[in-house]
Amino acid sequence: MISKSNNVLIFLILFFIVGCALPRFSMKPGGAGNDKEIPGKTIQVDFFENKSSLASSTVSTAFTEGLRDIMLSQTPLELVANNGDLLFEGFISDYRISPLAIQAGSETAAQNRLTMSINVSHSYAKIDSLGFHNMLFSAFVDYNAKDNFSAIEEELIKELNYQLTQNVYDKAFGGDW
Predict the structure, then answer these.
(1) b vs e for 47-63, b when ≥16 Cβ sit within 10 Å of the residue's Cβ?
(2) I need a surface site. Which of 46, 123, 155, 165 has the fewest CB within 10 A?
(3) Which residues are registered as beta bridge partners of 142?
(4) Phi, psi at residue 78, to the nearest 5°?
(5) DSSP label at 57?
(6) What is the DSSP letter of 103?
(7) What CA–CA distance (Å, rounded) separates 86 from 172?
(8) pLDDT of residue 97
(9) 81 Cα distance to chain centroid
(10) Between 58-74 and 149-174, two packed helices, what is the crossing angle to 10 degrees?
(11) Strand, coil or helix: 35
(12) Which phi and psi (to 5°) does residue 67 adopt?
């Protein structure tokens, strides 16, 4: 036999469960007070060419695919090769290694820093007022100078790509652009 207090408890639990909903995300162009949805269903991410003198040949492909992946996983937009409602294009402008933490009594570094910079152009084909936006993004990762760079470069590039692609996504859809 269920008592009235149990009925009330069950009602309250059901009320809170039904009242809770998954968060809803929308594809709104950035900027405070902008309530318009982006009128687009497709996104185009062009190949990011490597224009730096030091980067390996895999950096361009890895970054381009990383940016495509984040757009597919974090937006409801369909990735297309041409005529996308939203367009991202650009190039890798810098890829360099800098010494950090020079050890006392020697000229060798204990740590090195790998830095990658990208230039990104971003536009909404269906919203002229949002125009065309250009921005420079840069990220770095530090590693032990004694490590064989060739052996760890792929992992370092993954870390850089994660930072850079998330920054591009945040700027494009978070309102800072």
Answers:
(1) ebebebeebeeebbebb
(2) 155
(3) 113
(4) -95, 130
(5) T
(6) P
(7) 10
(8) 93
(9) 19
(10) 40
(11) coil
(12) -65, -40
Collapsing DSSP to helix, strand or coil, 17 comes out as: helix
3-state class of 150 per DSSP?
helix
Q: What are the average pLDDT values for consecutive 10-residue runs of the chain, which has 177 residues?
A: 66 59 46 52 95 88 96 93 93 93 74 95 71 84 94 96 95 70
Single-letter amino acid, residue 168: V
> Alpha-carbon distance 62 to 88, whole Å?
15
For the entire predicted model, the pTM comes to 0.73
Three-state secondary structure call for residue 56:
coil
As given in the structure block, the two tokens for residue 136 are 């420079």
**Residue 102, strand partner residues:** 109
Rg of the Cα atoms in the chain: 23
Q: How far apart are CA 39 and CA 42, in angstroms?
A: 10
CB 121 within 8 A of CB 93: no
The candidate with the shortest Cα–Cα distance to 137, out of 90, 85, 100, 84, is 90
- How many CB atoms neighbour CB 89 within 10 A? 16
We find that the CATH architecture of domain 4-174 is 2-Layer Sandwich (3.30)
DSSP 10-61: HHHHHHHHHH--------PPSSTT--PPP--SEEEE---EE-SSS--THHHH
